[in-house]
Amino acid sequence: MRKMLTATLILSSFASPLMASECGQVTIADMNWNSATIIANIDKFILTHGFGCDVDLVPGETTPTGTSMIEKGKPDIAPEMWSNAIKPVLDKGVRDGLLAYAGHSLSEGGEEGFWVPAYMVEKDPTLATIAGIKANSKLFTHPEDPEKFAFVGCPSGWNCAISSQNLFDALGLGDVGFDVIDPGSSAGLTGSIAKANDREEPWFGYYWAPTAVLGKYDMVKVDFGSGIDADEFSNCTTREECRDPKPTMYPASPVDTLVTAAFAERAPEIVTYLTQRSFKNAEMNKLLAWMEDNQADGDYAMEHFFLENESKWSAWLTPAVAQKVKQAISEL
What we know:
Layout: H1 2-15, E1 25-31, H2 34-51, E2 54-60, H3 62-71, E3 77-82, H4 87-95, E4 99-104, E5 111-117, H5 118-123, H6 130-135, E6 149-152, H7 159-170, E7 178-181, H8 186-199, E8 205-209, H9 212-216, E9 219-221, H10 230-237, E10 255-260, H11 261-266, H12 268-276, H13 281-293, H14 298-308, H15 310-314, H16 319-330
Parallel strand pairs: 1-2, 6-7
Antiparallel strand pairs: 3-10, 4-10, 5-8, 5-9
Helix pairs in contact: 1-12, 2-14, 2-16, 13-14
């Protein structure tokens, strides 16, 4: 369905070109996390200067934004929608002709896994595998119990605490002496990674991308040797009542750009741009790390992106639109 919708939108751009003077008012959801606010500001700049739109950023959150797009037809664009969170609602909106998917804002999807620092893998490549981790469990000293070994889990109360605990059990980590350490918060989890990397100490635990910490520190996702079993993950790994979890790597979480059907119909050239505009996780990790290091907001991070990545953003646009954007950047 998504491929058919995207193909239809792309083809329609050749049949019904949008003139800059016809763009008019456009609303873009500025979600309340950093990667989304960067993309929203990038879209605003390109639509304003490349397509001549009058753009407003409006505050957004996943469920309220998706619901508003269906019920009220606004905002026109949600640049970074983690679709799994409200997938039944969004898919119904597409079936009812109210919404359309316009490409993947994160081409690899959201990424989760168990990680170790790259400097550990450089010394011993087997540590990139769960078998190597289990064989070298004594490297990961426990902060309180010298008889156990540390696996830093997801903060309790988060959904990922369920999946990480189930995978901990499925992989038999407790059988070789590992104990789950609750970091208490996102800051606690991030801080434990930063502390270990700054001191080049062993670390093993759960994390996700895109995130600033994975842009600052080179981390390796541990291979469980299981491949991805999407049914197992959906029906057991993510469920608290799962009694016999099996090993599976985390499936990627779709991260899409969503538009209202009305906007797709009136602005097919912009939808074509949105289908081209996408980031790899490593690229977004680096951008988020720069944003954090420079205490930058989305607008400032947007300027940095445009100034440092012309070959990337220009490939999303036609030569004529890219030239307009380039001219506007030169005047920043």
